[in-house]
């Protein structure tokens, strides 16, 4: 029995060592400089100011802009008639009064939906009559309204929308204006975008499981950084990724203590539903630093 336990412990230690080696070997030895996008920690309004207003609505983006967010985060999907709309889920049931999949509906059908009343029911503390009957915005509605007065952090939720998205960004000249970052969990679509538009900053999103086994060297070939869940981050990993020339953005951080800790660790960008909280932390930090600048 003792002998068996010994073997078991040995195998376990070996497995941990292999994992560690796999992780280390994914990291390059020479230190690369991450390509900074912006001078300070990016304040990325997650689905707009979605802590205060219905996510992915014009009013959530307007509030985020008033709260000095650096980027508006927009998840895009494509309708059956080729319109790009802002919505997180591919199914409309959670954030509208309708049912069905976006890719099976025309924009005219989606435009009739109420994309705000659900928020008043779900968050009575933040409910507001202005949220009733608000509609699902098209990407072009958002770009027409804000133009280049703000920047856009757009997530490609399905590869089918990538071509239309790039055409739209070209038409609005947002690529040469460096007013856009593109992100996705889909590494293939990001690599395709990189081949066509190597100057667009790309962020490879990774979930809790994938981040352990990710090939960061390979990601660095097409992306300027990674988007990781903050719960799995630590200072050592951030340093490692910086050492590999990768920016580190993290989602979705709403607690001020978490924001401060991540900033101390050298995070480059934070997705938050409360851009005002991050704005004030950055302002206070700048006030402390200013006398020394
Ligand atoms: O895009 C960053 C973060 O938003 C990823 O998660 O599910 O909120 O789109 P999700
Ligand atoms: Ca997203």
Automatic annotation (TrEMBL):
This is Glycerophosphodiester phosphodiesterase. Transmembrane segments: none annotated. InterPro entries: GP_PDE_dom (IPR030395), PLC-like_Pdiesterase_TIM-brl (IPR017946). Residues 41-282 form the GP-PDE domain. It holds the Pfam family GDPD. SUPFAM superfamilies: PLC-like phosphodiesterases. It comes from Gracilibacillus salinarum. It comes from the Bacteria. PROSITE patterns: GP_PDE (PS51704). The lineage of its organism: Bacteria, Bacillati, Bacillota, Bacilli, Bacillales.
């Amino acid at each position: 029995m003792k002998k068996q336990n010994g073997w078991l412990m040995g195998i376990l230690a070996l497995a941990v060592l292999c994992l560690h080696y796999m992780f280390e070997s994914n990291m390059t030895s020479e230190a690369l400089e991450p390509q900074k996008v912006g001078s300070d920690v990016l304040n990325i309004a997650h689905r707009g100011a979605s802590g205060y207003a219905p996510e992915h609505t014009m009013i959530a983006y307007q509030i985020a802009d008033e709260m000095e967010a650096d980027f508006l985060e927009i998840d895009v999907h494509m309708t059956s008639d080729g319109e790009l709309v802002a919505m997180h889920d591919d199914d409309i049931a959670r954030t509208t009064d309708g049912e069905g999949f976006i890719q099976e509906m025309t924009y005219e059908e989606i435009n009739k939906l109420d994309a705000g009343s659900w928020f008043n029911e779900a968050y009575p503390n933040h409910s507001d009559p202005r949220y009733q009957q608000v509609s699902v915005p098209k990407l072009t509605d958002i770009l027409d309204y804000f133009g280049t007065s703000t920047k856009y952090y757009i997530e490609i939720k399905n590869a089918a929308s990538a071509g239309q998205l790039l055409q739209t960004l070209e038409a609005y000249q947002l690529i040469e204006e460096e007013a856009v970052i593109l992100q996705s969990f889909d590494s293939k679509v990001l690599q395709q975008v990189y081949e066509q538009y190597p100057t667009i900053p790309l962020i490879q999103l990774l979930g809790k499981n994938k981040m352990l086994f990710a090939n960061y060297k390979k990601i660095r070939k097409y992306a300027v950084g990674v988007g990781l869940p903050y719960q799995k981050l630590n200072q050592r990993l951030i340093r490692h990724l910086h050492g590999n020339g990768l920016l580190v953005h993290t989602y979705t951080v709403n607690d001020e203590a978490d924001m401060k800790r991540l900033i101390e660790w050298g995070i480059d960008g934070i997705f938050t539903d409360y851009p005002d909280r991050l704005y004030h932390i950055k302002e206070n930090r700048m006030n402390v630093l200013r006398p020394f600048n």
